[in-house]
Amino acid sequence: MNKKKSGKIVGILGLQGAYQKHIDMLDQLSVKTLLIRYPEEIDKCDAIIFPGGESTTMSKLIDNMGLREKLKNFSGPKFGTCAGAILLSEYCDDERVNTLANVPINTKRNAYGRQIESFVTEIQLSNEHNHTPFPAVFIRAPDLVIINNDVEVLAEYKKKSVLVKYKNILLSSFHPELTNDIRIHKLFINLIELE
Amino acid sequence: MDKSKFDVKVGLAEMLKGGVIMDVTNSEQAKIAEDAGAVAVMALERIPSDIRADGGVARMSNPKMIKEIQDIVSIPVMAKCRIGHFAEAQILEAMEIDFIDESEVLTPADETNHVWKHDFKVPFVCGCRNLGEALRRIGEGAAMIRTKGEAGSGNIVEAVRHMRTVQSDIKKLTVLQDDEIMAVAKDMGAPFHLVKQVAKEGKLPVPNFAAGGVATPADASLMMQLGAETVFVGSGIFKSEDPAARAKAIVQAVTYYDDPKKLAEISASLKDAMRGIEISEIPENERLAERGW
After folding, report:
1. Using CB atoms within 10 A as the burial measure, which of A90, A98, B46, B281 is most buried?
2. A62 lies in which domain range?
């Protein structure tokens, strides 16, 4: 942990997956990060990122390692990408994933198909006035199905919600951490500053 | 466009980091692997230790068996093709396999050339023993590298040798000046632009996983501490006395690889690991790691 300009600490769930890519993004924004693998580490964080990876693997480790209650009840901002979004959703169509039920959306795993259907495309972010498209990387991506009108859609792709916000939680079905575009991470950091 | 195609391939490898990829030979084993928390399964007809025992030509697995495994798990499914056997790779791609392992565990089909992996939409992983071999495979389009180890041996010594070699090859590159890199690229037999990139960044351009000989949680921890980003376990799980418990333990060992107390806890209740073979007992012409060029 280096000395960074903001005092806020963003925890990154470090059980499995692309957690290092999120740390690299936050380094660019001079935000302090802490890898979370033990329950007590959650208490030190002001916000938590749930990275991409395999949702079944992370779901099992969350339970086996006693992290479930603390992660579920953590009230600061949360950001879930791909598998991380599945973990934060109300309900997942795959019974093997035990979600934390923080956001009223249903997730469908691998909704776009197997790896051969993975793709990169450009999407528009609805909260921005400039219209520079965001390079969205979809890897065996889930579908985010909104079941409550309080969920705000920040980006769509082919009429599917791909970036959504609910209270202080941000979910994306794609991987902003795999690009060099820091806008979505910045958006998340703004949520922390608002707390 | 090609760049984004490659990014999507490497993207899946990124998602598999910090996990365990398990060899499975049928849908029951695939289920056990997934329940234990594997990030992916490798579908193959015979695990390496049985291939070693049975002899004969080892080929791509039967598509029917691969399909059964695809149907039962939701995690990515990988499968192996023979080195240079692009027709097997085409079939695996048509089956929408998530990752193809062009593997020395199977009998090579081409003793000069590997598959030109850029032609495929499906990502490939390839084995290596040193940096030159890793960069040749990446040059051909591999989106993930794994050190070879000695598959089916239950002995970690070769995996350690290969991982240490790759890491030390990388370290040596980082202290070179620009005018020294061409000569090194020539010696390594590796593409110049990749050698230059590694010299500059101090790491491989794609994720680097470990394979070949992992049998215990401690083995998994060792490989992670040596720089592996994920661990492949082949014979180690289903040749042990307690596959389900061992699979779960190795998954946890990869997450907590740097916490010896936790590793002691994780390992405590396990029964016997697979027996394992001393490498010198394997005749040189039967050592799988020697395959690949």
Report:
1. B46
2. 9-193
